């Protein structure tokens, strides 16, 4: 028993020891697990404290389980114990509307187990919360609790709103760009990665003549034909591979018209290739027109007298016309290199074609500022050779410069000459014997000379104000003999300026002076007023008129006396000639030789005297215009032949050889044959009588268009200047060797002129005399 008891006790002790050992081991194991759980719980707690979401459990009775972090998140002053604590005021907690919605959704979750999501707003701040709710684990919370996860989405919502706004802006911008592309006036398109069309705008559809965008894309209607053997798809692929925008200019048919287009292929990476076409036909036409206009303008500038040079923005010469080249002695090959502005000035200096300046670099730098000037610059250059140049420097909008050189040398000379002329005119006006004044169209005195002021007694102060005519008339009227005559001056000035008519009149001054006034319209619309002192001229005119009347009466008495005396001489001459003829006929018996010689001398002298009397009578009649002249055809050849025959005896008595040259057949002249015979006979008679004995007389005829010339020349002693000037003087008495002693030559001249011709005498002492008679031909 004792042994069994001891064994049992030992066994029990062994079992207890095993159990104690196991219990200790299990306790230690539980301790380790508890420590591990505590550590995990601490980590989970810390994780929950730092997690972006805060868990909250809402029990069925409204009590909540949440950390202090949740209360701080809502801005609550105390830890929330129940759900109603989440509804705050204006400074913290949830807004009333958001709380009411949250409370309803929580109850719905507790009742049905459904989930929900809701955005919450915190009162008094701009913070935003997102709550995701669902049913809690029924094992842990068997009575139906709701598990809520609160997320602080303030920053996320801001970023989301920003992204939302950006997306809306991008969407609006895309819509605007799409609308812009669709409504763009130029064709635009897009090609996908396969380089086929997948979008075209309305302008593209219109250009290719498609029904709509879809029709153009589906049919692959290309706007541009193949360029240089490459299709549009190949060109688009080349643009995408190069990664750079490709530009080309091609021709295309748009709306049935051939147009020049500038096409751009724009690589868009993986999105494909975009394209647009700009119609540059108008630009091409404008460029061609501009080139034609530029060529025409340059041709015009070459024909201008002014020198023109144009510089680009880089200050190189782009154009110079021919006058510029000639003006500055520049060669074409040198200008073809397009020299810079400064280099051109250097060459102009070498050619002595710039003004003389002291500091040329400074002067050149100053001229280079023309490119930067805001306004045109104008200068006058005086070159060393005396050339005056007007220089105009016009800055161009693109930064270039246009230079115009106008040669004003002639204008400067003309201006100098004009100034001299004005001074001469002023001096001339002031020293004229006439009074001169110029009145404008409005009657204002503009120019006057010293004589005008002296005649009218006008002060320089008054004239310096350029008074009007109506101001001067009362002053001028006081000097006239009849003051009312001043209206004549006013009227002729008005008629001259208004009707542009020249007028003349006379005015008498109170002091006895007489002036002739005249007005002449000037080209500028003014009137020239002149006054000439006619006092002495009028007195001389009256004296001459009286003397002329006396001379006229004396000439009439002389003509009457000559006519009466000629008629009185005819009676005894007729008796003398008659008795001489009877004696020659032997009525008084046979006469011896000497007596017959005396009778023949008496008859010859009577005939000669009868011719002289007839000449006097004819000359008297022709002087008063009473000599009748017939107009009948006259054969000049027969007339001259007959005259030579009639004067043959006289020629033979003096041993003169008469030669008649009719090689230039004279033909017929209209006139009086008897008077022409008389006139030519007087000339021939003088040549035979007063020429050299044993000499020669030549008669020649010449046809000169509508005139016939008869020339009678001798080789006699001729005449000196004094005798030649008096040969047609009817009252002169010349010596025997001076030619005609009577009225033969004056009468011959009058007879020739009465036939519409003229008579000229040429004679030199010792060289003979020639008389030329010209008569109009039939």
From TrEMBL:
<keyword id="KW-0418">Kinase</keyword>
<dbReference type="InterPro" id="IPR003594">
    <property type="entry name" value="HATPase_dom"/>
</dbReference>
<dbReference type="InterPro" id="IPR003661">
    <property type="entry name" value="HisK_dim/P_dom"/>
</dbReference>
<protein>
    <recommendedName>
        <fullName>histidine kinase</fullName>
        <ecNumber>2.7.13.3</ecNumber>
    </recommendedName>
</protein>
<dbReference type="Pfam" id="PF00512">
    <property type="entry name" value="HisKA"/>
</dbReference>
<dbReference type="InterPro" id="IPR005467">
    <property type="entry name" value="His_kinase_dom"/>
</dbReference>
<keyword id="KW-1133">Transmembrane helix</keyword>
<feature type="transmembrane region" description="Helical">
    <location>
        <begin position="6"/>
        <end position="28"/>
    </location>
</feature>
<keyword id="KW-0808">Transferase</keyword>
<dbReference type="Pfam" id="PF02518">
    <property type="entry name" value="HATPase_c"/>
</dbReference>
<keyword id="KW-0597">Phosphoprotein</keyword>
<dbReference type="InterPro" id="IPR004358">
    <property type="entry name" value="Sig_transdc_His_kin-like_C"/>
</dbReference>
<dbReference type="InterPro" id="IPR036097">
    <property type="entry name" value="HisK_dim/P_sf"/>
</dbReference>
<dbReference type="InterPro" id="IPR036890">
    <property type="entry name" value="HATPase_C_sf"/>
</dbReference>
<dbReference type="Pfam" id="PF12860">
    <property type="entry name" value="PAS_7"/>
</dbReference>
<dbReference type="InterPro" id="IPR050736">
    <property type="entry name" value="Sensor_HK_Regulatory"/>
</dbReference>
<dbReference type="InterPro" id="IPR035965">
    <property type="entry name" value="PAS-like_dom_sf"/>
</dbReference>
<keyword id="KW-0902">Two-component regulatory system</keyword>
<keyword id="KW-0812">Transmembrane</keyword>
<feature type="domain" description="Histidine kinase">
    <location>
        <begin position="564"/>
        <end position="778"/>
    </location>
</feature>
<keyword id="KW-0472">Membrane</keyword>
């Amino acid at each position: 028993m004792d042994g069994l008891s001891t064994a049992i006790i030992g066994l029990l002790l062994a079992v207890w020891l095993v159990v104690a050992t196991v219990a200790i081991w299990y306790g230690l194991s539980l301790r380790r697990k508890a420590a591990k759980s505590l550590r995990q719980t601490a980590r989970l707690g810390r994780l929950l404290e730092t997690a972006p979401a805060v868990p909250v459990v809402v029990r069925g009775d409204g009590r909540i389980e949440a950390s202090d972090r949740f209360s701080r998140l809502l801005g609550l002053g105390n830890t929330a114990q129940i759900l109603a604590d989440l509804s705050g005021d204006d400074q913290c907690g949830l807004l009333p509307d958001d709380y009411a919605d949250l409370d309803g959704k929580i109850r719905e979750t507790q009742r049905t187990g459904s989930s929900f999501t809701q955005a919450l707003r915190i009162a008094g701040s701009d913070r935003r919360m997102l709550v995701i709710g669902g049913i809690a684990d029924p094992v842990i919370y068997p009575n139906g609790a709701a598990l809520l996860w609160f997320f602080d989405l303030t920053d996320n919502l801001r970023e989301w709103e920003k992204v939302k706004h950006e997306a809306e802006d991008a969407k609006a911008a895309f819509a605007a760009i799409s609308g812009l592309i669709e409504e763009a006036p130029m064709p635009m398109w897009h090609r996908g990665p396969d380089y086929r069309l997948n979008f075209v705008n309305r302008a593209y559809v219109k250009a290719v003549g498609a029904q709509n965008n879809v029709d153009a894309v589906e049919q692959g209607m290309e706007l541009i034909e193949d360029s240089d053997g490459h299709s549009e798809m190949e060109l688009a692929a080349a643009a995408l591979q190069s990664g750079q925008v490709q530009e080309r200019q091609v021709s295309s048919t748009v709306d049935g018209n051939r147009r020049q287009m500038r096409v751009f292929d724009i690589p868009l990476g993986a999105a494909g290739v975009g394209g647009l076409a700009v119609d540059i036909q108008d630009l091409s036409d404008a460029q061609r027109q501009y080139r034609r206009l530029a060529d025409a303008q340059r041709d015009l500038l070459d024909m201008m007298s002014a020198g023109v040079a144009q510089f680009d923005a880089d200050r190189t010469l782009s154009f110079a016309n021919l006058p510029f080249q000639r003006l500055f002695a520049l060669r074409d090959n040198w200008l073809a290199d397009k020299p810079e502005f400064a280099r051109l000035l250097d060459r102009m200096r070498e050619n002595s074609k710039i003004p003389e300046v002291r500091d040329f670099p400074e002067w050149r730098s100053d001229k280079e500022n023309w490119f930067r000037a805001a306004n045109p610059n104008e200068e006058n250059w005086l070159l060393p050779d005396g050339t005056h140049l007007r220089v105009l420097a016009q800055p161009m909008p693109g930064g270039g410069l246009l230079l115009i050189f106008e040669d004003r040398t002639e204008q400067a000379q003309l201006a100098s000459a004009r100034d001299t002329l004005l001074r001469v005119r002023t001096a001339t006006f002031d020293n004229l014997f006439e009074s001169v004044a110029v009145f404008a169209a409005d009657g204002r005195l503009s120019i006057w000379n010293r004589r005008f002021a002296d005649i009218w007694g006008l002060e320089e102060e008054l004239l310096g104000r350029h008074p009007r005519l109506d101001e001067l008339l009362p002053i001028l009227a006081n000097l006239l003999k009849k003051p009312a005559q001043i209206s004549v001056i006013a009227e002729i000035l008005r008629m001259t300026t208004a009707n542009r008519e020249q007028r003349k009149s006379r005015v008498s001054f109170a002091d006895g002076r007489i002036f002739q006034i005249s007005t002449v319209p000037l080209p500028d619309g003014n009137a020239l007023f002149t006054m000439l002192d006619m006092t002495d001229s009028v007195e001389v005119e009256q004296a001459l008129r009286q003397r002329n009347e006396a001379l006229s009466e004396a000439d009439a008495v002389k003509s009457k006396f000559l006519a009466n005396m000629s008629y009185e001489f005819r009676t005894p001459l007729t008796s003398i000639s008659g008795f001489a003829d009877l004696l020659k006929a032997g009525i008084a018996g046979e006469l011896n030789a000497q007596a017959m010689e005396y009778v023949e001398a008496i008859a010859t002298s009577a005939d000669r005297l009868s011719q002289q009397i007839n000449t006097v009578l004819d000359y008297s009649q022709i002087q008063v215009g009473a000599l009748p002249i017939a107009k009948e055809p006259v054969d000049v050849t027969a007339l001259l032949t007959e005259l030579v025959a009639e004067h043959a005896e006289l020629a033979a008595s003096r041993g003169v050889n008469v030669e008649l040259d009719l090689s230039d057949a004279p033909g017929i002249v209209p006139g009086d044959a008897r008077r022409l015979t008389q006139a030519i006979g007087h000339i021939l008679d003088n040549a035979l009588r007063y020429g050299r004995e044993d000499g020669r007389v030549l008669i020649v005829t010449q046809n000169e268009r509508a005139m016939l010339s008869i020339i009678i020349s001798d080789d006699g002693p001729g005449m000196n200047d004094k005798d030649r000037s008096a040969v047609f003087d009817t009252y002169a008495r010349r010596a025997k060797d001076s030619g005609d002693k009577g009225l033969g030559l004056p009468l011959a001249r009058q007879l020739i002129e009465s036939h519409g011709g003229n008579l000229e005498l040429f004679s030199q002492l010792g060289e003979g005399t020639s008389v030329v008679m010209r008569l109009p031909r039939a």
